[in-house]
Amino acid sequence: MSELLAVEGLCTNYGKIRILRDVSLTVGEGECVALLGLNGAGKTTTMRSILGLTPPRAGTVRYAGHTITGWPAYKVARLGVGYVPEGRRMFKDLSTLENLQLAENSRGGDWTIARVFEHLPKLAELRGRKAGRLSGGEQEMLAIGRALVANPRLILVDEPSQGLAPLVVEEVYRILAELKNSRVAILLVEQNALLALKMAERAYVLDSGRVVHDGPAAELAGDRDRIRSLMGMDVAPAN
Length: 239
Ligand SMILES: Nc1ncnc2c1ncn2[C@@H]1O[C@H](COP(=O)(O)OP(=O)(O)OP(=O)(O)O)[C@@H](O)[C@H]1O
Ligand SMILES: [Mg+2]
Prior knowledge:
Elements: E1 3-14, E2 17-28, E3 32-37, H1 43-51, E4 58-63, E5 66-67, H2 73-78, E6 81-84, H3 96-103, H4 113-119, H5 121-125, H6 136-148, E7 154-158, H7 166-181, E8 185-189, H8 193-199, E9 202-207, E10 210-216, H9 217-221, H10 224-231
Parallel strand pairs: 3-8, 3-9, 6-7, 7-8
Antiparallel strand pairs: 1-2, 1-4, 4-5, 9-10
Helix pairs in contact: 3-6, 6-7
């Protein structure tokens, strides 16, 4: 599988505090890779470092043949890297449709607003509603729709199941599976390890800003003791 994203030796601080320590990972073209770890392990910081939102102190980020380390986020986005942030973050006073229109890119591509509405009919129904009035699940769908209309080749998804009812989680994962089928590469952060491992081909586990495990997702999914020892917790059942 050809490499789309390659992160090497990433070190990132918040002020004087070292958060990421020598984090290396890769995502292949069309591959889904899970990034797991306990609260505070550094998962979101890894994504922010890749995206240029929190530039790293050391290390390199290569994407589709470009060295993008520390590039401003808008330039990274222009290269086709999508982001579904933790907590969703959208323009709360704008409607569903307006949020999508702002994110739509001018390069064009398979994912238009019309196609997003076809795949997420709920969003079509809610096109006129202000994003701030959507439920958590509806906001997650909008966050995914917004990333899609930018026609990404790689999408970084941070805890898409957070705070959602099991049926909504299923719906969100159905969309992610569809993305995967259409060969969009995914870096997926999840608290629910088993859920992410079902979707991913490979997985990395972070602990205190270091990669403490990497390997095939299926292998890790089948080894509950290993998950428990890596993440120091009992594993929630996958939905
Ligand atoms: N803006 C910030 N300023 C200072 N410290 C921060 C900041 N953001 C995160 N941190 C710290 O960095 C560490 C890693 O945080 P990060 O958000 O990357 O973890 P995470 O793995 O995404 O956790 P969670 O599962 O809770 O989302 C934590 O100790 C956190 O308190
Ligand atoms: Mg996080």
